[in-house]
Amino acid sequence: MEKHPDPRGSSVGLGTGDSPESWARRLRRGDALAVQEARQRVSRILVHGALSIPPQERQDLEQEIMTEIWQAVNRPHFDFSAGFWGFVEVVASRRSIDWLRSRRESVGIPETVRSTRPGPLGLTLERERRARVEEVLADLDPLCREVLLARFRDDLSYEEIARRTGKTRGALRVQTYRCIRRARTLLENVRESR
The pTM is what? Predict the structure, then answer.
């Protein structure tokens, strides 16, 4: 049997007609050379430094991967014509990553850490609230609209609003009270109409 260098560094025994399909069928039959080659390819992935799999864990993981590969080639509809060695390496890589994920230390998020951004429901409720407020403001007379926006949206004091409107502070307080009462009535009507 002639040996050809594998681009990943090991030698693969390639006899006449040894295609990926042939290797898969040989593995299915339990051919020692096919099992050895599959184990070597799996092992190369398990020892890769980026995975940091401890040596004492590799043997069990290799056995699990080899079992999964053997079960796959023994399925009735396994596609022997597809890239078999690619399949072996994909299974080995995925199981290695699964192994890492299962052993990764997870740190819980403390209850004190909460998002300050509203979720989808909060955003929907906020849009509805804004729409109702806009509708109520549109139905108020211009003076009420101006007083309420200045006081609650712009956060102006009664003195600042008095300078702006030419009214006394006391008159503005009474006006604000009446405007709020009128806005509440309009808001109730908006709620009932929906």
Answer: 0.45
Give residue 82's pLDDT: 65
State the Cα–Cα distance between residues 43 and 24, nearest whole angstrom. 18
Nearest CA to 41 among 99, 91, 80? 91
Between CA 117 and CA 22 the distance in angstroms is: 58
Residues of the chain with CATH 1.10.1740: 2-103
Task: Name the residue among 16, 11, 78, 8 with its Cα closest to residue 44.
Answer: 8
Query: Cα–Cα distance between 178 and 115 in angstroms, integer?
Result: 38
pLDDT of residue 30: 87
Rounded Cα–Cα distance for residues 179 and 52 (Å): 69
CATH 1.10.10.10 domain span(s) along the chain:
133-193
> Greatest CA span in the chain, whole angstroms?
106
**CATH number assigned to the domain covering 2-103:** 1.10.1740
| CATH C-level class of 133-193 | mainly alpha
Q: What is the pLDDT of residues 36-82, one digit of tens each?
A: 988 998 998 888 877 778 888 888 888 899 988 888 888 888 776 66
